[in-house]
Amino acid sequence: MKGLAAFVMKERWQAVLVIAGLVCLSFMMPLVGLLSSAALGLVVLRQGLPAAATVLALSAAAVAVFGGVVLGSVAAPLIYALLLWFPTAVAAWVLRISRRIEWALASVVVPALMAVLAVYGLIGDPSEFWNEKLIRLVQPLLDQAPDGLDADGARFGLRVAAHYATGFVSAGSALSVFLTLMLARWWQSLLYNPGGFRAEFVELRPAPAFAYAALACIGGAMSLPAVAELLWNLGVVFFVLYLMVGVAVIHVLLSRRSAGKFWLAGFYLLLFVIPQVALPVALMGFTDVWMDWRHRRAAGV
Question: Which stretches within 123-207 are classed as H helix?
Fold first, then answer.
């Protein structure tokens, strides 16, 4: 990873090669696209917007050529690449000018919340929209399902999931952008400020206003049936926000123990293998606004 970051930062044409090349590769291996965004984020963090804008323009031109020659379309791959790059570039710019990781996280979460509100404002019933899309996606599998599979139960599950799909899509997008930004920041730390990324990440603490907004969403969802679905979808985005904060809190607490690296590795493995662990982690991040777990534990309270 450090070698790739160093390659990106050496020359402008090398940055374009990596950023555009990884996007092109992502049409076969989708997750590789996140590395492309991280590479652009690294350029923004280190060199600022003017240099990054040139790299972005050249990379976009390269993707357009690739699309026209290989895929037979210029617009689709270009739009895909810009949607992949732009959010990370904006978040990286916010982090560069503010030097505050919580501001960068806010620049990711706030647009995700606005996206949920926009969907519910523009589409009368988003759940019907998502249900139609999910059924269309899964129907071929249901048609070929073995006799023992409860197809009606599967369709019912999709109808339930459709009610929260807007929140999950927005939250998933926000999570991928923030993780990409953190990868770019880690690369920058490896190259220019060893140890700086950890010191910055473990102090991640969003403004208290986010916690009170999340409380309002939860309370409203339980007491206002007319807007409950919208508020629960907003709550999914807040969940991702406090999941990231909870990871920072856990990172601090476990690193203080003997064999801290072993405990941290176990924690990340557990989070990956058993996703339900994310719930108490997010709860710890949420309550950190009032409990201040990191400094409370340090003081032995």
Answer: 126-143, 151-162, 165-192, 196-201
Contact between 9 and 46 (Cβ < 8 Å): yes
pTM metric for this prediction: 0.89
Q: At what angle do helices 32-47 and 75-98 cross, to 10 degrees?
A: 40
Distance CA 159, CA 152 (A): 11
CA distance 215 to 43: 37
Are 243 and 275 contacting, i.e. CB atoms less than 8 angstroms apart? no
Specify the 3-state DSSP secondary structure of 107.
helix
Q: How far apart are CA 9 and CA 260, in angstroms?
A: 32
| 201-252 residue pLDDT tens | 888 999 999 999 999 999 999 999 889 999 999 999 999 999 999 999 998 8
State the amino acid at position 88 in one-letter form: T
Question: Which three-class secondary structure state does DSSP give residue 300?
Answer: coil
CA atoms within 13 A on the CB side of 211: 18
Half-sphere exposure of residue 212, counting CA atoms within 13 Å on the CB side? 3
Structure tokens at 138: 């899964």
Place of tokens 């006799």: 147
pLDDT 10s digits, 34-56:
999 999 999 999 998 888 999 99
